[in-house]
Amino acid sequence: MSTVTLPEVETRPEGTDSTGNDEPKMFHYVRKDKVAESAVMGNMVVALCGEKFPVTRSPKPGSPVCPECKKIYDALPPGGGA
């Protein structure tokens, strides 16, 4: 009989760091009307960069922003629209 050492497997929930902190690594731009719906209903939202996730946190001033979302947001015409 022989034994094998398995590689270390990441078992923390997605979005947490090694200290167990569940703060997202960065925040994404999402349609405003979808944020509240996701927070209440648990629906998935799609960020400008294409990332899909349920809204669970609100960004604080100075929070890191997804560079791809920011690039897309900055290229949008002013006025918000639908």
Task: Give an account of the 3D structure.
Pfam families: DUF3039. This is DUF3039 domain-containing protein. Residues 1-24 are annotated as: Disordered. Helices cover 23% and strands 7% of the residues. It is of the alpha+beta class. The chain has a domain at 32-75. The chain is globular, with a radius of gyration of 17 Å. The N and C termini lie far apart (65 Å). The model is unreliable at 9-18 (pLDDT under 50).
**Major beta sheet, specifics?**
2 strands, antiparallel
The shape is: globular
Count of helical regions = 2
Q: What fraction strand?
A: 5-15%
Average pLDDT for all residues: 76
The radius of gyration over CA amounts to: 17 Å
Structural class: alpha+beta
Instruction: Tell me the number of strands.
Output: 2
Strand order of the largest sheet: 1-2
Level of helix content?
A: 10-25%
Terminal Cα span = 65 Å
Q: What is the succession of H and E elements?
A: HEEH
In terms of per-residue confidence, which ranges show pLDDT below 50 for 5 or more consecutive residues? 9-18
How would you summarize this macromolecular structure in one to three sentences?
With 82 residues, this protein is α+β, with helices and mostly antiparallel strands. The protein contains 2 helices and 2 strands, in the order αββα.
Which SSEs are present, and which pair or pack?
Elements: H1 32-41, E1 44-46, E2 52-54, H2 67-75
Antiparallel strand pairs: 1-2
